[in-house]
């Protein structure tokens, strides 16, 4: 027989599972291309935000995370457009190249750490943008590269056609979100989770305890680079174009704000909540005709979070408080009354 304390663990998980199921049913309820496009792009940004949060959990503050979106997007586009590769090998290569760049850059810049790391990653983003702008023979400069959807996938009695509808992109995006979420969650739950937390809290003490700082910082930076590159590939392919202005400083700032607002205490839940609140709502309001509303929304929400939530917490932390301080307290009160 399930005890009272079992409900405290099971009920929130049931609510989350039900929410995920209803979310995956969105294409059944609406096939509006604008709405589905916002959901797809929100999912891809959520992957980038998860990567930023993973790096931040090691105590390193990256201001160039959008550079890896650009690397992934351009790698995929160059391979498919210039070299006529099929989409799926170029998609995987985008993650590999982005991860390799992150590994090489991390092995150099993560030695400095702190504000210097932030400045160097900021410069990396600008370097990638300038290369994309000037290397017209490969990237076509400001004109950008025009991509095309993946070829249809035949499953015998059923065909997945990326040309006909954004629905296949929706499910492909959230398969990638789910894969990223599972891997990042496992990282947080494994021995790497406490090690990363120790690096952020007191790197000197962690090093004295035998933890090799560079090794674990590079692991986090590389893993984040791989999945951000995959998201960049799908992003460029879905938009059917990639130009130097798509990924810049503002996009890196967006990623940072979405992570802080969602909450860095959770590698998965915080980034997803922050992204869907800010990016989805900002894009929706912008498409309703509110020009410039997105930067205003980002600024207003981050100020509210910093003012009204305890330091180091975000919106994801309200979930646990809701169950412990609202739902379960009410149940305990009713239980006590019944006992009397």
Q: Could you describe the 3D structure shown?
A:
By secondary structure, this protein is mainly α. It has one domain: ABC transporter involved in vitamin B12 uptake, BtuC (Orthogonal Bundle), CATH 1.10.3470. 74% of the residues lie in helices and 2% in strands. It has helices spanning 4-24, 26-29, 33-56, 66-82, 87-109, 114-134, 136-139, 167-189, 192-201, 203-208, 213-239, 249-262, 269-287, 293-308, 317-339; strands spanning 145-146, 153-154, 159-160, 241-242. The strands form two sheets. Strands 1-4 form a two-stranded antiparallel ribbon. Strands 2-3 form a two-stranded antiparallel ribbon. Helix 4 (66-82) runs antiparallel to helix 5 (87-109). The longest helix has 27 residues, at 213-239. Residues 1-5 and 331-340 have low confidence and may be disordered.
Quickly list its features.
two-stranded antiparallel ribbon, mainly alpha, 15 helices, 340 residues, disordered C terminus, ABC transporter involved in vitamin B12 uptake, BtuC, 2% strand, disordered N terminus
Mean pLDDT: 85
Rg over CA atoms, rounded to whole Å, is 21 Å
CATH class: Mainly Alpha
Briefly note the CATH topology name. ABC transporter involved in vitamin B12 uptake, BtuC
**Order of strands across the biggest sheet?**
1-4
The biggest beta sheet is recorded as: 2 strands, antiparallel
Share in helix: over 70%
Separation of termini? 24 Å
Uncertain residue segments: 1-5, 331-340
Number of strands: 4
What is the 3D form?
Answer: globular
* SS summary, helix count: 15
- Tell me the structural class: mainly alpha
H and E string: HHHHHHHEEEHHHHEHHHH
């Amino acid at each position: 027989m399930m005890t009272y304390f079992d409900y405290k663990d099971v009920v929130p998980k049931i609510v989350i599972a039900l929410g995920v199921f209803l979310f995956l049913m969105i294409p059944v309820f609406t096939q509006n291309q604008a709405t589905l496009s916002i959901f797809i792009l929100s999912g891809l940004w959520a992957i980038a935000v998860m990567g930023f949060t993973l790096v931040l959990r090691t105590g390193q503050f990256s201001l160039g995370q959008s550079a890896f979106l650009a690397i992934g997007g351009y790698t995929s586009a160059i391979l498919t457009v210039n070299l006529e590769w099929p989409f799926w090998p170029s998609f995987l290569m985008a993650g590999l190249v982005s991860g390799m760049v992150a590994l090489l850059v991390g092995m150099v810049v993560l030695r400095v750490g702190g504000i210097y790391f932030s400045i160097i990653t900021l410069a990396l983003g600008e370097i990638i943008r300038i290369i994309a702008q000037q290397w017209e023979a490969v990237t076509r400069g400001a004109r950008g590269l025009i991509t095309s959807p993946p070829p249809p996938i035949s499953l015998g009695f059923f065909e997945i056609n990326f040309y006909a509808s954004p629905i296949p992109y929706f499910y492909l995006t959230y398969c990638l979100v789910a894969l990223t979420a599972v891997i990042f969650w496992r990282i947080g739950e494994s021995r790497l989770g406490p090690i990363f937390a120790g690096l952020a809290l007191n790197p000197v003490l962690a090093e004295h305890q035998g933890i090799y700082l560079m090794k674990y910082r590079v692991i986090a930076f590389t893993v984040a680079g791989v999945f951000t590159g995959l998201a960049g590939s799908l992003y460029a392919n879905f938009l059917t174009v990639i130009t130097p202005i798509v990924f810049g400083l503002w996009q890196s700032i967006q990623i940072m704000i979405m992570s802080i607002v969602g909450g860095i205490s959770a590698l998965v839940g915080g980034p997803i909540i922050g992204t869907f609140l800010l990016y989805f709502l900002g894009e929706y309001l912008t498409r309703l005709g509110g020009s410039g509303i997105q930067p205003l929304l980002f600024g207003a929400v981050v100020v509210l979070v910093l003012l009204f939530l305890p330091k180091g917490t975000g919106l994801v932390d309200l979930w646990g408080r809701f169950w412990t301080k609202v739902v379960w307290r009410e149940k305990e009160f009713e239980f006590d009354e019944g006992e009397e």
